[in-house]
Write a structure and sequence with these properties.
The protein has helices at 3-7, 15-27, 45-57, 62-71, 73-76, 85-94, 97-108, 132-137, 173-187, 202-210, 231-238, 242-246, 249-262, 271-298, 300-304, 324-327, 343-350, 360-364, 393-404, 408-420, 422-425, 427-456; strands spanning 115-126, 147-155, 160-168, 189-195, 214-216, 314-316, 332-334, 356-359, 368-370, 373-375, 385-388. The protein is of the alpha/beta class and 457 residues long. It folds into 3 domains: 3-94, no CATH class; 97-133 and 143-292, 2-Layer Sandwich (Nucleotidyltransferase, domain 5), CATH 3.30.420; 300-425, Rossmann fold (3-Layer(aba) Sandwich), CATH 3.40.50. The strands form 3 sheets. A 5-stranded mixed β-sheet has the order 3-2-1-4-5, with helices on both faces. A 4-stranded parallel β-sheet has the order 6-7-8-11. Helix 16 (324-327) links the parallel strand 6 (314-316) and strand 7. Helix 2 packs across helix 3 (45-57) and helix 3 (45-57) packs across helix 14 (271-298). The longest helix is centred in the last third of the chain and has 30 residues, at 427-456.
Length: 457
């Protein structure tokens, strides 16, 4: 049996292993291994962050999660000891809120959404742990308590959280519609934005259409047409898309799931840590949802391979849009000989740093530059992947089995060679080179104009 068959995540793996592995995969995209070059390097920031996420998933305090880490020693990769609970507290205090916000956006990318129908709503979280039943039993006088108001922007089609924001206690929902829609638009293109009547405002409708989204918000008060002000509000008075609005109920489901699984109270005492805790709840929900959603993301073809127990080893590069963060969790990628396959799909597949099975027709007709040196072939057969005959699917099947049955040394050599040039295949590298070229041409143009003006003088 080959290296992949013994080391890839199997279908029968525990839920905790899948959760921890997915957390590590996402955290590594946001945080550096160490906060400073003078760090003790006893533990990594990745280990701390995943421990915090696991703590919220299990609804445990800092002291108890340290005991839980002893059970998952191997999953976290600890060397000699487990971090003290105060280490996790200091890490949580050190990492700013915007980092967790950025991590939330990265977890949404797991669902590979490009255009989303969005629902926006808010819910409240208690700021104390006292049992209401116990308070009633001891006849404690009722007093209105403070709470954290949590605003969510949700992809109703994938049931995933895109963005969130928090305010303590009482805030008018209407004022939060624009900030939430702006944060959402930075992550994904919005098709339709639905909200309840608490967000009803003509200015909110105008802002939604300004960024290219349709807004579906019912009128706060159903009055006559003559008393209804605003172009978009009058338009909804005539025709209200009830089916599109009904999808808004998905956000109520997500609010319910978060509170039932991860608790409806916050343990933190400071406002800044309470906001971070809310972000962590959203991150944990997205990862939880992704683990249950991943099979449908991979498509029906991979599902049909499950009977042969091959689907956990590799993934086919989609012909329309590639998802590098999804592909990176597999052992290797397979590019199919499709006429609709774009060069960007192939390059983003190579950017994962995995060995790739490439059809010979796609491999021979593309020119790729490595630091200014042009190579005629994307995949060098036997080095960073394998090349198969695009007219022979039996050859493709044989190459797939060859990759699965490869020994550890062969597979690691292929993966190391592929990862060497991975960054140069990415869109980020390409855009950077384009920007540098434009900047160089622009500066030369400015110098030419200035020299021409000086010559006239």
């Amino acid at each position: 049996m080959g290296y992949l068959a013994t080391h890839m995540i199997q279908k029968g793996d525990s839920w905790y292993k899948k959760f921890i592995d997915t957390c590590f995969m996402e955290v590594k995209r946001v945080l550096r291994p160490y906060s400073d070059k003078f760090s003790k390097k006893t533990y990594t920031q990745h280990q701390h962050a995943v421990a915090i996420l696991l703590m919220k998933r299990e609804r445990k305090p800092y002291r108890d999660v340290v005991e839980l880490l002893k059970e998952f020693w191997a999953y976290f990769g600890f060397n000699e000891s487990i971090p003290h609970f105060t280490t996790l507290e200091k890490f949580f205090m050190r990492i700013p809120t915007y980092v967790w916000d950025f991590l939330l956006a990265k977890t949404y990318e797991l669902f590979a959404g490009t255009i989303a129908d969005v629902a926006i709503d808010s819910t409240g979280y208690r700021l104390h742990h006292a049992s209401q039943h116990y308070e009633k039993r001891i006849d404690r006088p009722f007093r209105r308590k403070r709470f954290m108001k949590h605003f969510l922007s949700v992809d109703t089609g994938r049931q995933a959280i895109i963005a969130s924001d928090d305010r303590r206690s009482y805030v008018n929902d209407t004022l939060m519609f624009k900030p939430m829609l702006k944060k959402t638009n930075e992550v994904v293109n919005i098709g339709c934005a639905a909200a309840d009547k608490g967000f009803d405002s003509e200015s909110n409708h105008k802002f939604a259409h300004k960024i290219g989204a349709d807004s579906v918000i019912p009128l706060r008060y159903r009055t006559s047409l003559s008393k209804t002000k605003g172009y978009y509000r009058r338009k909804l008075w005539h025709h209200f898309p009830k089916k599109r609005y009904n999808m808004r109920s998905i956000i109520e489901t997500i609010n319910s799931v978060e509170k039932r699984k991860f608790g409806d109270e916050l343990r933190s005492r400071l406002l800044k840590t309470q906001r971070r805790e809310m972000k962590i709840i959203d991150i944990v929900y997205n990862i939880h949802r992704y683990i249950n959603y991943a099979v449908s993301v991979l498509g029906g073809f991979l599902q049909s391979l499950e009977k042969m127990k091959l689907s956990e080893y590799f993934i086919f590069a989609p012909p329309i849009k590639n998802y590098p963060n999804l592909i990176a969790s597999f052992g290797f990628a397979v590019v199919l000989p499709a006429k609709t396959l774009r060069i960007s799909n192939i390059l983003e597949t190579m950017a994962t740093g995995l060995p790739v099975l490439m059809p010979d027709d796609e491999n021979d007709t593309k020119l790729v530059a490595f630091n200014g040196k042009v190579k005629e072939k994307i995949v060098e057969d036997g080095k960073n992947g394998l090349v198969y005959d695009h007219n022979d699917y039996k050859d493709l099947a044989e190459k797939i089995m060859l990759m699965i049955d490869a020994d550890e040394r062969t597979y690691r050599e292929m993966r190391n060679y592929a990862s060497t040039y991975a960054s140069e295949f990415s869109s980020k590298y390409t855009y950077q080179k384009i920007y540098e070229a434009i900047k160089e041409v622009y500066s030369d143009k400015i110098k030419h104009i200035q020299n021409k003006q000086y010559s006239k003088i």
